[in-house]
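Justification of resources, computational component.

The compute hours requested in this renewal are based largely on the per-chain cost of generating structure records like the one below. Each record pairs the submitted sequence with a full structure-token output. That output is archived, and it is also reused by downstream analysis tasks.
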Amino acid sequence: MRQVFLQSPWIYHKEPPEIVEIFFRYGVFERLKKGTPLKNGGASGRFYYLKKGLATFTSQDRSGRMFSFCLVIPGRVLADIDGISRENVNVVDKVIRPSEVLSIDYDTWYKHIGSDPDKLLMVTRGIIAKHESHMEAMIANYTLPIENRLKVFLKTMLKSYEMPLAEWNWLPLYLSEEEYAGLLGASRVSISRQFIKWRELGLLRKEKREIILNRGVFDDVYDWTDA
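The structure output for this chain reads:
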């Protein structure tokens, strides 16, 4: 699952309670419609804690193709990396489901986090961990065949929702084949073919839109810390 670093690819770790508390105490509550971009980076950028929903970072390559390199699930802070630098970069942070967030501006962040050495150290370590997650995702997309990328992503999803492997495993969230493809550097057709293959092998069941995977899907998922 991990090839170089200690962080899992694509999906961030949970935030420390000390940081989350700042958002609950001083944050502005917002309900956002699917597709709403967030104010990331720049002088007016904000920091966001995701209470409910899903978010992602997207960027556009030279050919105009959009790709995602991170999936943000509840319990995570986003827009904090470019929020600290206050630079505008070629990344769009947006929610991809109806979502609920708590947001704070830079002055609030600095007053309660950035000026506190202990909390700033937590944030610094967290940002390093987030970059490690990004790099693990890129390494997976560059080095693994599509089938293995999908296995690693799905095992990361289960781990991130603290769901230990069972004989049969319900995926904790629904993503479209297009969303899987955007995260894994694949095509929608290749993702669809892989799910069909597992279903024919008796390793996947579906109930409406719910996907249930047999633990055998993950038998050959590599993690360097297990070596």
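The helical segments are 17-26, 81-85, 106-114, 117-143, 146-160, 177-184, 188-200. The two ends are 12 Å apart (CA to CA).
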